[in-house]
Amino acid sequence: MREISALRTDVLMLGLLAALLCLSLVKGPATQPTTQAASAAISPSAEIQSVDDASTTLPRNPTPAAATSEHASELPDFAAIRDTATKKREFFHYMLPMIRESNDKIRADRRDLRRIADKLVTGATLDSSELDFIEGLQRHYRIRNQYDLSATVGALLIRVDVVPASLILAQAANESGWGSSRFARQANNMFGVWCFTEGCGLTPLARTEGLTHEVAKYDSVQDSIDAYIRTLNTNSAYVELRDIRANSREIMEHFTGHELAEGLRRYSERGEDYVREIQMMIRVNDLHQYTLPPIQA
Hints:
Elements: H1 2-27, H2 84-121, H3 128-141, H4 149-159, H5 165-176, H6 182-187, E1 194-195, E2 201-202, E3 214-216, H7 221-234, H8 239-252, H9 257-260, H10 272-284
Antiparallel strand pairs: 1-3, 2-3
Helix pairs in contact: 2-4, 2-5, 2-7, 3-4, 5-10
């Protein structure tokens, strides 16, 4: 009996070992986590380089492009897409959800700010959370205290506002070469934004002797979009853009990317020619289709 019991034990042990061996073969090797290097703090510049573009009309129902592991950034490999219309469709589809996310955050802040403005009109006193909210926006949008709180909120409302998707898409395509430029691929920089701290980005290969700027590097394309919108909303070079937007708000609560492009003369050394090129890209690629109706803008 002892021999039978020992035999049964041996059989059970062999069966257990076989099961464990099969399980390890099915699971395969463990996957290794991927990491992304953090970038330095960025200080956007009003001087931004442009990239040439050849425009075609955007098809109506875009589908996403697949990302490739060979890329240094999170971008799909747009350079591998040979058909121009397909590349544009993929590019716009890739960018649009992130643009909407950035604008949605701004839209929520603007709604709260307008509610506070309405409250001040009635003479009501703001609570501590509302005052903290205003102070946070002042820091982010670089607004100093005005002569009274209502004036401070009014100054914020000019800056705390969305940028139309049509304008963002056109500039991103123009500045990044449809997502194929070196700065887009290696730095997630979709708008050619410069920075001025050593090591903050990538050094342009054709940088003029004596200049020290770099092209800013971002952890993600989303960060690049957020920084670009903040630049338009805060930099003194784009006062005209913000004035156009604020005036349109007063008249009809609506504005377009084509209108706001008029305020981009200082975005590029090409000035007026750059503005006309961006407006042409909006028209030819039918980017107005991505503009939200007035009630949502």
